[in-house]
Design a protein that fits this description.
Chain lengths: ~180, ~90
């Protein structure tokens, strides 16, 4: 009889999702650090971030199972129900993104894209020096910082709640296999 | 109380310098001695520049404009002399 040892971890995050995630983290940090007086460098960082968002959007339709938007994005009813169970402390563990994390991904990608596009707009002949575009760009950058903070808080909370290292999983791609009521 | 006052001081100082880019700094003294922005705008308009915006950065006037060739420029000028101020290459 073979002993029923612990089941091996499952591969969840593919290399492109992981590399894309950390490249986006790096570009957001670099964009923040170059926000004053590093025009050309800051612009290229912005274009890199836009390219990463575009890549992720495409990958969300053609990538492997856990990279696909259809795997993790749910409608408001499902998401609110999940949010309610989080408040009660009995939400199921998700092997992929959980429904709240999924909408955070949508929000982050949207705001990064909007920040990048508004930054580009500022460099066009038409909007060069335009104070409204500059204010919009700065407001989007602040919004992004707020979202990043919430994202990290959510990752830490979910890691503690389900006793798994989600930050580590975004590096090596592996997670504990589904068990019990887990959503695979 | 002393700590609070110090913190407020630090925040106030950082708010004042919040928009300093470090691209250029002008030893321009108190603003009473500055020429008005309109004077700079007039001077540059006479050089066929189209001024988009003038703001203060690092004690200099920072100008966003289209120059006489229709190119986008971000240029710095000394607010007392209105002389161009070179920016740090980056």
């Amino acid at each position: 009889m073979a002993a029923a040892g612990p089941r091996p971890p499952v591969k969840v995050w593919d290399p492109l999702v992981r590399a894309g995630h950390w490249a986006l983290v790096a570009s957001i940090a670099a964009a923040w650090l170059t926000r004053k007086g590093w025009g050309a460098v800051h612009e290229w960082i912005g274009y890199a971030a836009l390219a990463l968002v575009a890549l992720r959007l495409v990958w969300g339709f053609i990538g492997p199972r856990y990279a696909r938007f259809s795997q993790f994005i749910h409608g408001p009813a499902h998401t609110l129900r999940y949010g309610g169970s989080v408040l009660k402390g009995n939400e199921p563990r998700h092997v992929g993104h959980n429904p709240l994390g999924a909408w955070m991904i949508v929000a982050l990608l949207t705001v990064v894209a909007a920040a990048g596009l508004s930054g580009w707009l500022f460099t066009t002949d038409r909007y060069w020096g335009d104070e409204r575009v500059e204010d919009l760009h700065e407001a989007l950058a602040i919004a992004l910082l707020v979202l990043v903070t919430l994202h990290v808080a959510g990752v830490v909370a979910a890691s503690l709640r389900h006793r798994e290292n989600l930050v580590g999983a975004m590096f090596h791609g592996r997670k504990r296999p589904p068990a019990g009521d887990d959503v695979a | 109380m002393k700590k609070t006052a110090m913190l407020i001081g630090v925040f106030a100082a950082s708010a004042v310098t919040a928009h300093a880019t470090g691209l250029a700094t002008c030893d321009s003294g108190p603003t009473e001695g500055w020429q008005p922005q309109a004077a700079l705008e007039k001077k540059l308009t006479e050089q066929q520049w189209k001024i988009r915006r003038i703001k203060v950065d690092g004690g200099c006037y920072e100008v966003y404009a289209m120059n006489e060739k229709g190119e986008r420029v971000e240029a710095y000028f000394h607010p007392v002399t209105l002389a161009p101020v070179p920016t740090k290459p980056r």
